[in-house]
Amino acid sequence: MEQEISGGSVKQLILRYALIAGIIACLVVIVNSSISLFVRAQAAPNDAQLLSLILEIVTLLLSLTVYFVIGFLLGKKTGRVRPGLFAGLWTGLLFGGINIVSALVLLLTVVLPGMAEALGTQPSLEQIITSNLLLNWLLSLVLAVLMGVSMSTCGAMIGCKKKFQQSSIPISQA
Questions:
Q1: Which of 64, 87, 140, 165 has its CA 20 to 30 Å from the CA of residue 156?
Q2: Three-state SS annotation for the chain
Q3: What is the C-alpha to C-alpha distance for residues 171 and 65, in angstroms, rounded to an integer?
Q4: Buried b (16+ CB within 10 A) or exposed e, 54-78
Q5: Partners of 9 in beta bridges
Q6: What pLDDT, in 10s, does the model give residues 2-48?
Q7: In angstroms, rounded to a whole number, what is the distance separating the alpha carbons of residues 151 and 107?
Q8: Phi and psi (nearest 5°) for 5?
Q9: Which UniProt keywords are listed (predicted)?
Q10: According to the 3-state scheme, what is the secondary structure of 71-92?
């Protein structure tokens, strides 16, 4: 039995919030990558590493905030934790999947031609697979899903609590 809420069913609401949050998280990563590439090109190597680390930490915190906020909003809107959990799951899958696709595009368009130019030969598929790229991509997907589920569930729990606090009838003291 699916609960109806203003703006559609809970499933539609989950998917809508997850899509919006996934796109926001991806935009954060794209902006971070662009700034990081610019900084690495302009700054000294030690400064570039420090600034890249700071940017990665900021990106992680912004991504966690996005996950938390969608859970909070869904928890507040539905009064349940489960929609926040599922929104975090879908957002993590979307975010991780887009990261894998963008890494694959970067690998095929920038890294491999650069390696071919430096080595004088095109690296084989076996060299690419044995370089743990696939394991790294899978690990990044799993971490994105875990972060999404955990943070959105925390947000949903707090959102549910806020909804019940606002809707409760105050008891007058005698």
A1: 140
A2: CCCEECCEEHHHHHHHHHHHHHHHHHHHHHHHHHHHHHHHHHCCHHHHHHHHHHHHHHHHHHHHHHHHHHHHHHHHHHCCCHHHHHHHHHHHHHHHHHHHHHHHHHHHHHHHHHHHHHHCCCCCHHHHHHCCHHHHHHHHHHHHHHHHHHHHHHHHHHHHHHHHHHHCCCCCCC
A3: 35
A4: ebeeebeebbbebbbbbbbbbbbbb
A5: 4
A6: 455 655 688 888 889 888 888 888 888 788 877 877 777 777 777 77
A7: 30
A8: -135, 155
A9: Membrane, Transmembrane, Transmembrane helix
A10: HHHHHHHHCCCHHHHHHHHHHH
Dump pLDDT digits (tens) for 44-69: 777 777 887 888 888 888 889 999 99
The C-alpha atoms of residue 155 and residue 23 are separated, in whole angstroms, by 19
**Pair of tokens at residue 88:** 């975090």
What residues form DSSP beta bridges with 42?
none
Task: Report CA-CA distances (Å) from 108 to 75, 114, 116, 129, 169.
Answer: 41, 10, 11, 13, 60
What is the C-alpha separation between 60 and 162, in angstroms, rounded? 26
Q: How far is CA 41 from the centre of its chain?
A: 26
Amino acid type, 68: F
